[in-house]
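Quick one, T. Sequence first:
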Amino acid sequence: MIKVDLSGISTFLDSADPDYAAAAQAHRVLLDGSGAGGEFTGWLELPRRTIKNELKSILSAAAKIKSRSKALVVIGIGGSYLGAKAAVDMLGKTDNSEGCKIYFVGSGLSVDYLNDIITELGDDDFDVNVISKSGTTLEPALAFRIFRGLLERKYGKAAKKHIFATTDNERGVLKKMADEEGWDCFVVPDDVGGRYSVLSAVGLLPMAVSGIDISEVLGSASEYLSELASPGPSNPAWQYAAGRQKLYGLGYSTELLAYYEPSFRFMAEWWKQLFGESEGKNGIGIFPASLEYTADLHSMGQFVQDGPRFLMETVLQFEKANSEFKIPFALGDRDGLNYLAGRDLADVNRTAAAAVKSAHILGGVPNIEILVPRRDAAGFGELVVFFQFACAVSAYMSGVNPFDQPGVEAYKKSMFRMLGKPSDK
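Structure tokens:
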């Protein structure tokens, strides 16, 4: 199970400990659905619901795709793709005997990126999974038009068999198109917002096609949600939420999520959306940023160590590496590294992390540590629900609705106006 270590913030606190009374209140309103946005807390039951209602159909669709295609093109933006991308990257690439290559498009408008993906696909057989609640968000809608056209040129009338739509159960442009064309459909749950939807078909179909054991992901997530539902200061979600809110109250307004595994990069991107959209409202909120260590210590390390003191640091560590590599002995020791010969590289990485933590604390950066047993399917499931639960508790502690995102629409309205979109479209 995930553990949270708050020892690295103790020297920065005033006389009061983290506010567990506020965490208790946030925990209550989250579980009973009485807080703002309570109608969007379906994610608390999502792993169990998915196992019961959709797992078989998701696995069946994934098997169909893997049996005939070398690639799946996933079209989505924000919560419609970040969770799946995080899982595919974090849990490793699989060869075509176990899973397909996954391409992600529709999260931007770069013509060069789009053409690079099309070039890489080449003549390979592929399927498309378009993910959108409405079907009207510009970036994925444009990407879908383009890749649907590619499918139609490649497969003709059979193209519709290669399209899987994950969308609203009853309404919206994409749902209407899917019904008219006869595409296979999966549902974006009405009571789950996009950034909380990764453990539905939104994230699970691409994950399953890539070769990830989604049954293990869901089972782990469901079990850990039961643990997180138990109130008390020993609850790791309480510890994380209360610790970061305490630091925010003391003026630490930016949180760095630091990690030591490059494969965690898109998990950090998912985390940034989760906390940024959930908490950045009403002129308040902790700004979420991320750094990859040790690489970024050689670019941003100076700023973290000696820059303005508004930073808090949350360090994500996997307690056990998935592999071993013993550092070799070299005759002559010309590089001076024989003192490390025979040691496992993962041990050196852990030692570096301990040294960084000590230096940053001495430099004035409070440090929260999150410890995950392993970088595997079970660990991914636990991480998803841990961060979701802690984020909701933290947002309720700060007095905002964790489940809306009214500011997201501002750029869309401006962009559509500048592009000349007709008012009736």
